[in-house]
Amino acid sequence: MELLAPAGDWESLRAGIEAKADAIYFGIKKLNMRVKTKNFEFSDIKKISTICHKNKIKCYLTLNTIIFDNELKDIDKIIKKAKEKIPIHLSTQASVANSKSLELYKKLGIKRVILARELSLKQIKNIKTDLEIETFVHGAMCYAISGRCFFSQGLYNESANRGKCIHPCRRSYKLIDLETQKEIQVKNNLFLSSKDLCTLPFLPLLINSNITSFKIEGRSKSPEYVYAVTKTYREAIDSYNNDPNEFKKELPILMERLNSVYNRKFSQGFYLDTPNKDDITTYSGNASKTKKIEIGKVTNYFNKQTAAEIHLISKSLKLNDTILITGTTTGVLTQQVTSIQKNNKPITIAKKGEKIALLTDKKIRKGDKVFLLLNR
What we know:
By secondary structure, this protein is α/β, with parallel strands linked by helices. It is 24% helix and 26% strand. It has 2 domains: 2-279, TIM Barrel; 290-375, Beta Barrel (Elongation Factor Tu (Ef-tu), domain 3). A hairpin with a 4-residue loop joins strand 12 and strand 13 (307-312).
């Protein structure tokens, strides 16, 4: 069983590794379904592969977009860089939902399929194949579910099927009955915005199925999101495999962690039943219980003291505050402020504009970003 984490940039790559994912998936600029995220350069492939293999995890190159003739040379170049004869996985964009389709794709050389997201767990179990099966276990859900959506293309000429979605489904609309001129009332006027998928409460059912890989959506998400969600599912899988009763006890704490990072409230997707009106979110933005504010940067780090010099650029900081530090090599660090020093003297509050020293729970690096975490 594999836990597969997303990486939209170097910070998220490190976050997924630190959270003990079994594999990471990433995209190259322009040629994947998350064009608007940072992504990686063609020249980064070797470095990504080296980092992942050093940490004994797999890395998957994502090329899940509609390809035009003028892009075939770029595709060939990328595949040669990644080495030919690598295993080929079929994207959920192909909407595979039955065994016969898999027979065809197997003849074409497919080794793994990411099934259509409209399938129930019962339907997944009924699929007969010796191919690896990958499904999503957590993250955002497109209103069109497996994709093939033309809403963004029709309104803004930005194709969701080319990774350029403007997300018009996330916006508020007025719905008026033209015969009666009465407006149909829905909270926050959100008619099309799906809640996020969360399988944690019924994860044991997936563990005991024929699913090979548990995929977390989120190449456009923050590094702390990738870390928190990956860590949660890692602990949940390990906990259940070690002791199912212990998993039940830990479930409320694990759900709290998922609620602490970006979400639109949670849905079980199609796994247990067909979604209904209750699977449309009432939140126009982030429903998480915490928010982050960027307050400064790391200007120096002292290994012997495990302390960092931080320049507070936009906000003050006090003892017992919770901070988040992210960096391309550091990954993610969340900790409580246990000490503050200014000019080698302890203080309880540091003001905006000051340079201070903090003890850190692990090594961080010059240039890392510092955020203050607050309850909403």
